[in-house]
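=== RUN LOG ===
request id: a7f3
mode: sequence -> structure
chains: 1
length: 382
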Amino acid sequence: MATNLSPQARGTGAGVLNINELVERAPDIIFHYQHAPIPVFSYVSAASGCVLGYSPEDHYRNPSLWLEIVEARDRDWFSTFWIQGCLKEQCETFRFVARDGRYVWLEIALSLAHDIHGDVVAMQGIARDVTGRAKMMESLMESAARAEKSVELKDKFVALLAHDLRSPIGSTLGLLRALESGWGEMTAERRAEVFKNTIGAMERMGKMVDRLLDVNRLKNGRVELDRMPAAMRALTEAGIAAHRHIAARKRITVVNEIPDTKYWYVDCQLIMEVISNLLCNALKFTPAGGEVRIRGAAPDTIEVVDNGIGMPPELTPYLFHSSSVAIRHDTEGERGHGLGLALSREIVSAHGGEIAVESSLDKGSCFAIVIPGAGLEDKGCA
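=== RESULT ===
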C-alpha cells in the first residue's frame, strides 16, 4: 500500500508519514535558496550536518558557505554553476571540504522556483553524497592510466630488447652463413675462430634472456635467498677479477677499499651478481685512464664510485626498471639494455634493501648498495 504524502494527509493518522519528517530523515541534503530580496538559504535539511559537518543554522548564517568550502580546483566551476542556477535547471558534481577536513563529492541537482509572474525567485535542489562512487571512478581511471602506461612501457621494452637481440642474432646468422658457404676453403684456425665467435654471440643472447627471466622471477617472489655470512672483501675481489680484462684494456685503475673485516649476512651468489653488474657498469661508462673505487661507506653499505661520464639527473629514475627506456651509450658507443641494473635492484630489494645512485654529468657516478641489518661487524661475526 503506497504512503499518502498529499498535503491533506500530513500527520493525519497511523501509517501516514509527515512530509517534513520525510525530508528531515532523507540522507540527501535538500535545500531552498532564495534570490530576493537578498540571497539566502531559506531551508536546509538536517542531512547537511552528517554529510558536510555544517548544520542548517550554519547555512542560514552564511549564504556563501558552499562557495567557501568547495574544493579550490572546483571553485570557479561551482561559482558559474550556482550563478547559472538562476537561469536553468542542471545537475553537476563537485568536491567539497567538510568541517573535519574530509573530501566530499556532492552531486547537486538544481530546479527553479517561480513567482506568479513566472520570474525565477529561488533555487531548490538535492545534494547527494556520491563520494564512494566518485572515488571508485577515480580509482578505475587511475588503474586504466597505469595499465595504459604499463602497456606503453612494455611495448617500448619489447622494441628495445628486440633491437639489442638483433645484433647477436645477426652476428650468429652471418657466421653460420660464412661456414655454410666457405667451409671447404677455410683453414682450421679460421673455422675455430668462427665457431668461437658464434658461441660468444649465442652466449650474449642467452645471458640477456636469463637476466630478463631472473628479473621476473625475483619480482614474482619465486627465488629463495640462501643467506650466509659472506666476506665482502672476497666477493668484491672476485667481481674485480671477472672484469679485469675490461679494466686492463681501458687502462682503468680499480681500487678495492672494502676491509677484510666486512661481513654481510646475504645470498653470496646473488650479491656477487649485483657487485659484478655495478662494477661492469662503472667500467663501461668510465673513459680510458679513469678510476673506479669500491668502498664500504657504512656497515650496511657498499659503494661503487667512478669518475666517468656520469648522467643527467632526469635519467636516474629509469635506470633500474626492466621496462624502462633509459638507453645510454658507454664510452665506446655501445648501447646498454639496462637489464643488469634492473636485476641488481630486484636482488637487493629481495634482501630488504635498495640501490641508491648519485651522478653528475661528466663527473661520474656513485651506486650504493644499502641493505639495512646486513652488516655483521657489530654482531661479533667478523
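=== NOTES ===
The first helix runs from residue 19 to 25.
DSSP finds eleven helices and 14 strands in the chain.
=== END ===
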